[in-house]
């Protein structure tokens, strides 16, 4: 009688390198681990393996910082070559202090270092950037999987975010394909039939957060998980539905 | 071989009223639904039933707005009696516009309307406030459950939050007991043995988000869910570990 949601973390995806076929790696891991992908499943993929497969990995040794990168390196007390890499994916520098470099990146997210990150890539000077277009990457993975298994599935790519007001990070969606990102309660009734005026849940972010619990961040090496038994509706929109401009942001001026 | 997380939503918890014994209601629902609570389970409870059990439900008809509430009612174009109710749980008004009233509430959260909410309470003028001390409420529920079942469990109380930068809401923790709230990777190595300098995942928020997927917001009436197969460590801290002061907030000035 109880309603049960299951999240399965795949544990045998090999270390991914440039050019790897992620859908094929997922299907092979599912076979090895006796996991079957079924209609309604949501496949959640961490950004890092997508970035690696797409060749978005850079060695600071090959980067010459610009004047702006040198200045921001000073302001943030960070390696100006890293700053140069961050700027290559940056639309707008929001805040630069020794505590961190916050930017709006080319993908539209307000985040630290535009998403540049050296965890789980080999070498002290090697950093990955986010996929250039995570919605498109999600679509390619979804279509690739569907070519092999022909099921109704959705794909979400996730990354780890620091956020205002609260300590520590959570995983959020950076791209998605096939799923409508919200569960919109705004025209439905509550237990007593009253209309819910505000409730509009960003389920893709909630899915991203829960899968991080399975995926982990360090040596767990579980870069893909599968969410089963969740009800969702098809959608053909992308991250532009999620990301607010400063003028739309209710919290503008609140921080 | 795959690592599996299971989230079970209890579907037979009755409508909760003031004075109800939530641990007893959970245990009875588990019996009816053949769900057993085991060592390591995390019990996630939506704020609304805790507020109702604690009598934190108010009728605007009984409220006389103060001068400040009348002014803020004008500024926000909201019922000044609601504003008066919000002010009773408010430490600091952060922003007041027709788009919303953002405050720091007595529980320390920056949020809309201090958490006052009229969904899933009966009557057009009836609103609930958050539990006065959600950590303490979590502890009472945990101890109450443990008196009956004597297992190693944690309790998290959740609420729905609008957040900066992104459209729509997600559920986050507002109180917890028995669990250390972070999975701290800051002194561990990644796949390549490099130290992770920043990663400190707020797992209680990630857990809160997932259970919303099961719990839902409107007529689903699943106010409690149970997370199984997650590894976590015991902790004796509370929400003060999560909530940042403005001076600690990396995003200060970024919005």
TrEMBL record, chains A, B:
<keyword id="KW-0342">GTP-binding</keyword>
<feature type="domain" description="Coenzyme F420:L-glutamate ligase-like">
    <location>
        <begin position="13"/>
        <end position="229"/>
    </location>
</feature>
<dbReference type="GO" id="GO:0046872">
    <property type="term" value="F:metal ion binding"/>
</dbReference>
<keyword id="KW-0464">Manganese</keyword>
<keyword id="KW-0460">Magnesium</keyword>
<dbReference type="Pfam" id="PF01996">
    <property type="entry name" value="F420_ligase"/>
</dbReference>
<protein>
    <submittedName>
        <fullName>Coenzyme F420:L-glutamate ligase</fullName>
        <ecNumber>6.3.2.31</ecNumber>
    </submittedName>
</protein>
<keyword id="KW-0630">Potassium</keyword>
<dbReference type="GO" id="GO:0052618">
    <property type="term" value="F:coenzyme F420-0:L-glutamate ligase activity"/>
</dbReference>
<dbReference type="GO" id="GO:0005525">
    <property type="term" value="F:GTP binding"/>
</dbReference>
<keyword id="KW-0479">Metal-binding</keyword>
<keyword id="KW-0547">Nucleotide-binding</keyword>
<dbReference type="InterPro" id="IPR002847">
    <property type="entry name" value="F420-0_gamma-glut_ligase-dom"/>
</dbReference>
<keyword id="KW-0436">Ligase</keyword>
<dbReference type="InterPro" id="IPR008225">
    <property type="entry name" value="F420-0_g-glutamyl_ligase"/>
</dbReference>
